[in-house]
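Need residues for this backbone.
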């Protein structure tokens, strides 16, 4: 399934191998990012013949905002295929948007693999740089005997200075993971606990911010779109809407459209009331 930007709507109201991979070996990835993959949080560079690597899973998920100075654990699982050499090495390479290695002089996390196909998991903990805007994790497979590589996985993470509570657009893509849904739901439930209301018949749980600017509706088990949520934001005489789903896309789209229709109806009734003598 093609991953897409977070769905939005708007309605306006009137009124050990540290030196193995050099910067030069990975520099072409910057061109890929800038020219071809500017909006992608996870992708592969052009693949080579005889070896390949593909992402299976990553924690935190690509695109997750990271806090400057925080120590963040990473865990990735990848599939590989290796035919051009009897052995190879899968490596985690952490850099910022300027190609600066952010792990200092300590060795990079590596796993040795043998000819054939397989799956491996690698883990590391990295301090998010305070002077960068983006953390990038490159995951290449380096066949023995080669000095440069291509086809590596690139994972991108935006860096932020603070988390001031639930963000209107916490993720760049509408199609999220169940873990991302659970993390955001927990943040909202903790922050807006006093506003929580349940609608068991509709399989919905709703919250709103203290200033009533944000209104959030989360699905619960039994809802056709679960897990998913819709956020509506009232600001400067307008109501914006955004949605995320980790379940089936079709019922989520129906949910999104129904909330947009509800917003339109509510705003129309408000405008009519304001025009009454």
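Answer:
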């Amino acid at each position: 399934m093609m991953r897409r930007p977070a769905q939005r709507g708007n309605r306006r109201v009137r009124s050990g191998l540290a030196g193995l991979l050099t910067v030069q070996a990975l520099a072409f990835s910057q061109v890929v990012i800038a020219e071809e993959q500017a909006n992608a949080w996870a992708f592969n560079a052009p693949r080579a013949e005889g070896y390949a690597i593909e992402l299976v899973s990553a924690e935190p998920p690509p695109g997750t905002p990271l806090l400057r100075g925080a120590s963040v654990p990473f865990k990735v699982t990848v599939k590989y295929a290796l035919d051009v050499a009897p052995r190879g090495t899968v490596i985690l390479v952490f850099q910022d948007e300027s190609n600066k290695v952010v792990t200092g002089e300590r060795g990079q996390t590596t796993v040795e693999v043998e000819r054939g196909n397989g799956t491996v998991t690698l883990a590391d903990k990295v301090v998010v740089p305070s002077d960068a805007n983006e953390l990038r994790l490159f995951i290449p497979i380096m066949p023995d005997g080669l000095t440069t590589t291509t086809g590596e996985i690139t994972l991108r993470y935006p860096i932020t200075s603070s988390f001031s509570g639930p963000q209107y657009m916490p993720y760049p893509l509408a199609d999220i993971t169940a873990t991302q849904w659970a993390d955001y739901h927990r943040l909202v439930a903790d922050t807006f606990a006093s506003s929580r209301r349940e609608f068991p018949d509709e399989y919905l749980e709703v919250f709103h911010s203290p200033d009533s600017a944000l209104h959030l509706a989360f699905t619960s088990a039994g809802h056709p779109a679960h897990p998913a949520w819709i956020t509506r934001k009232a600001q400067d005489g307008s109501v914006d809407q955004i949605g995320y789903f980790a379940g089936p896309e079709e019922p989520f789209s129906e949910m999104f459209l129904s909330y947009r229709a509800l917003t339109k109806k509510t705003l129309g009734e408000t405008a009519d009331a304001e025009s009454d003598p």
